[in-house]
Amino acid sequence: MADRTDRLARLALLGNTLQDAAARQDWDRLGEQARALFPALHALAAQGPWNAGERAALERVRAQHDTAARHVAAAARALEPRLEEMRANKDGWIAYAMHSETESGASQE
Fold first, then answer.
1. Using CA atoms in the order 76, 13, 64, 50, what is the torsion angle rounded to 10 degrees?
2. What is the pTM assigned to this prediction?
């Protein structure tokens, strides 16, 4: 029974860690947790068939993963206007940088 309890606890930890990272908008941590999810689930599955409680816990992990993915998508949508503005002004920034570079070179002579 200890293995089953450990497996349930591990599933809860996997899902809660994803949920926490998404809620905190800790994208680096969320990425790490998402990349670690498949190997962790694979290792847990290797311990034997899932019982009903574990299948329910797996569903919770899936739901938490889906929620985290929605957080990421919303954050990406929120960044899009700023990225578009940066793309639109790219030529101006390059011209400014080139002008600044030539100004710096002229003042050093």
1. 140
2. 0.73
Res 75 pLDDT > 90: yes
Residue-wise pLDDT for 33-67, tens only, equals: 999 999 999 999 999 999 999 999 999 999 999 99
Dist. CA 57–CA 72, nearest whole Å: 23
- HEC string of the chain equals CHHHHHHHHHHHHHHHHHHHHHHCCCHHHHHHHHHHHHHHHHHHHCCCCCCHHHHHHHHHHHHHHHHHHHHHHHHHHHHHHHHHHHHHCHHHHHHHHHHHHHHHHHHCC
The neighbour count for residue 18, using CB atoms within 10 Å, is 24
Q: Amino acid identity of 43?
A: A
